[in-house]
């Protein structure tokens, strides 16, 4: 795949250092993945950074993902040593189950403390994930749900607060932003079209061409339904764009097709879920 992201190693190092500092403050980590791209939105370096710290995976934006594939992703990931919960932070769906999963994951820690005679110590959690995956939305949900006022605690980096979200469960109010990994063009593409990467650091035209070819192969009926076009198997990305331009009246002076407008339209419709439900990463096969 010929897809490039202009990336900045300096930013990546800074994000990694910040995450390492924040992780020291917590007992359990919620790793938020985008249900449309569970593989590409996960950061393989997190495992090493966590060590023995338990984590719970939240598959967010499940309202925009392919429902069958999300089920398979939940099952496939669950085989490992952590819980996986489907959530939709925009509406709050699954958030209760997520809290229960976190409490469950924290149980061995509380038991260890109890044995040592430590009482009334809250479990501290933080949410990590790539940009735009929904971390702040989840924090707002968790805080809004219990309506407990934020409280300042000493010994925490200035500006960071612990918020009680359930009995014995405190949340660090700042989420950890996992730096995107786009050494692999496929991962970069997935992050770009789902909105984890700013549009000014990649070529939208190339991204939309790759996207349309992929959707034409895997979800042709969605493009047909959304734009009212007929597709043939031999259509190139340019053919599809031209068909959409005609169907949508994207024309420039003199009746020339405005393909730039189509590119913007397709990218926006895809990112916002208006084109339908899609999952770009195939679930694990070893089910
Ligand atoms: N469709 C849908 N959109 C969601 C969901 N959760 C969050 N969003 C939207 O995703 C966008 C990004 O959400 P944020 O909570 O700001 O994401 P973030 O991870 O805090 O992003 P950064 O702070 O940039 O790292 C917002 O427009 C949210 O409304 C969801 O479950 N479904
Ligand atoms: Mg945020």
Outline of the structure:
The chain has ten helices and nine strands.
Summarize the helices and strands and which ones pair or pack.
Elements: H1 9-23, E1 28-34, H2 45-50, E2 55-60, H3 67-78, E3 83-86, H4 95-115, E4 123-129, H5 135-146, E5 162-166, E6 169-172, E7 176-177, H6 185-194, H7 204-218, H8 220-227, H9 237-248, E8 251-252, E9 256-257, H10 259-272
Parallel strand pairs: 1-2, 1-4, 2-3, 4-6, 4-7
Antiparallel strand pairs: 5-6, 8-9
Helix pairs in contact: 7-8, 7-9, 7-10, 9-10
Bound molecules: guanosine-5'-triphosphate and magnesium ion (MG).
Guanosine-5'-triphosphate binds at residues 60-61, 63-64, 88-90, 129, 131-137, 175, 177, 273.
What is the molecular shape?
elongated
Model regions low in confidence, pLDDT < 50 over at least 5 residues: none
Helix content: 40-55%
CATH class of the largest domain: Alpha Beta
Q: What is the total number of structural domains?
A: 2
For the sheet with most strands, the description reads: 7 strands, mixed
Number of helices: 10
Q: Could you tell me the mean pLDDT?
A: 91
Structural class: alpha/beta
CATH fold-level label of the largest domain: Rossmann fold
**What is the total tally of β strands?**
9
- What compounds sit in this structure? guanosine-5'-triphosphate, magnesium ion
Computed Rg: 21 Å
Question: CATH architecture of the largest domain, please?
Answer: 3-Layer(aba) Sandwich
Percent of residues in β-strands: 5-15%
CATH superfamily of the largest domain: P-loop containing nucleotide triphosphate hydrolases
**Helix-strand string:** HEHEHEHEHEEEHHHHEEH
The separation of the N and C termini measures: 28 Å
